Amino acid sequence: MEPQPPAGSSAWEGHDPDDGAIYTRICPLAIAGAGATGGLMGPPETFWSAAPPVATVDPAQLAQQALDKMTLLGPDIVSPDPVGKYIVGLPIWMWATKSQTTYGPNTASASAGGVTVTATATVSKIVWKMGDGSAVTCNGPGTPYSASYGKQESPTCGHTYSLTSASQDDGKYTVTATSTWSVDWQVDGGDETGQLTAIRQSQERVAIGELQVVR
Hints:
The protein is mainly β. It has one helix at 59-69, and strands at 21-25, 28-31, 35-41, 45-49, 76-78, 85-87, 92-93, 95-97, 106-112, 115-129, 135-138, 158-159, 173-187, 193-209. It folds into two domains: 18-54, no CATH class; 57-209, no CATH class. The strands form five sheets. Strands 6, 9, 10, 11, 13 and 14 form a six-stranded mixed beta sheet that branches. The N and C termini lie far apart (89 Å).
């Protein structure tokens, strides 16, 4: 502490100022299962010590701080039809544009007490909730559609609606794409490693109609 408490203060815990010093420690807050909360600090803890305490660094907390520095977004959903109108029974191709913030890899570092941790985040899967009660899990960004594919199904990530969206709000289904980011971290120059997980979402509205045949 600066300045040190006067002699006789209860902070000395019965010790004399010549015996050591009073120190203050402030630690990051943490939420169970989530790690450090990125800048939120707990109340200061004051204590006496005969010698300067040796600071200990938790690499997992530094990894969380590195993650907090990254800009991780939900999937950058691409719509094959700019108007977002599709037909019952025809395969829909789902895919997302890959970038540093929407798919990775995304890298950041954090340091404290002479320890530096570098974390790298990459999307491991995208779960698409199609709005009709079904969900599709894709282990990659999906395959971009082009007109040459015609009515083929996507080889990597697709869905076929069996009902129109006429009963939905505004006559459209809400498609929610949830990406799971796997964050691998390592102490620079050390052997200690670990992994964190981050979740991000994006949404798109699509209209599903029926093709009417007139004879």
